[in-house]
Amino acid sequence: MTRAVVVGATGQIGRATVDALARDGWEVTAVSRGGDRDTRWPGGVRVARADREDDAALSAAVGEGCDVLVDAVAYGEGHARQLVSLAGRVGSAVVISSVSVYEDDEGRNFDTQTEPGGFPRYPVPVTEAQRTIRPGDASYSTRKAALERELLAAGDRLPVTLLRAGAIHGPYCRTPRELYFVKRNLDGRRRRVLAYGGASRFHPAGVRNIAELIRLAASRPGTRVLNAVDPDAPTVAEIAAAIDAVMGVGTEDVLMDGPPVDGVGDTPWSVPAPVVCDMSAAREQLGYRPVARYADTLPETVAFVEQRLAGRDWREAYPKMLAAYGDLFDYAAEDAWAGGR
After folding, report:
1. What local confidence, expressed as pLDDT, does residue 83 receive?
2. Is the dihedral of CA 205, 207, 213, 214 positive or negative?
């Protein structure tokens, strides 16, 4: 039996990863700040309580060594160096990065998207050969780029697979984009306004597919960078319709030709240009095959969001969603815009 240590085990990616590795016969240690609190692990999974920022605690969780260390919560140079310091006791690592490290050929990236004309225009689809943002400490994206740089530079000491995940979805997400349509349906809204003609595409990445990539990479150590997204990249209108189908409701789409107007028509997937990634490298290097399409995972995701919302204000249930996107449910502004058309 081979041993795996999963850091960030109680997060949405971590939970799916622990389950996938345990089912594959790995001896798994699930590492998180809360330990086994509110978590039912598969039989045989060991639990370790450790803060990601505590070098000594993480080192103790690794113990005498492991064949693979999976890190779902790393970003920045500090975390990269922390992982490399464990190289003598860790056979290889699989680390979650992000498609936000990409920039287009004009230097536009996710950090410039709020500037006029600043949203990146990527090739469709984006391959791992696409240029990336300059590493640094300024943002989430630059810190992910710094994480990648440091780990790739140390690949001779610690083989690492970096997975550039898209719009992550699944149960236990603290910022579920699906909340936008789930809450609207629960509130009885039967009309929705979608900017960019409802055609925006921001490639989703299901936790079950990410966990499958991790499972395959764990058994095939090497230093590589791979995209980690679903087999399909539905438009925002298709996502909305799929959520409606799960919830058994019908909703009229009101399509705006251009960008949102004072927030009206905006959604967590609304982008002026497609963000669609290529998965050929994962197929060729790991023999990867997706285990689920986006629509297949929605019943579980919707049920989780509904359960978390039950009897609670959405801002209390999902404070990180509020911090990331602001007020997603300004119905008065939406009705005023629709009434003035």
Report:
1. 97
2. positive
Maximum Cα interatomic distance, the chain, rounded to a whole number of Å: 67
Share of the chain above pLDDT 70, in %: 98
Nearest alpha carbon to residue 240 among 174, 285, 195, 175: 195
d(C-alpha 83, C-alpha 72), whole Å: 12
The CA R_g of the chain, rounded to the nearest whole Å, is: 20
pLDDT digits (tens, 9 = 90+) for 268-308: 999 999 999 999 999 999 999 999 999 999 999 999 999 99
Predicted TM-score (pTM) of the model is 0.96
pLDDT bin (cut points 50, 70, 90) of residue 340 is low
Please give the Cα distance from 84 to 222 (Å, whole number).
14
How far apart are the C-alpha atoms of 147 and 190, rounded to whole Å? 44
Contact indicator for 321, 174 with CB cutoff of 8 Å: yes
DSSP-derived secondary structure for 108-172: -BGGGTTSTT-S----SSBPTTS-BPPPSSSSHHHHHHHHHHHHHHTTTTS-EEEEEE-EEESTT
What is the rounded distance in angstroms from the CA atom of residue 245 to the CA atom of residue 52? 39
In this structure, are strands 224-228 and 191-194 parallel, antiparallel, or unpaired? unpaired
Residue type, 286: L
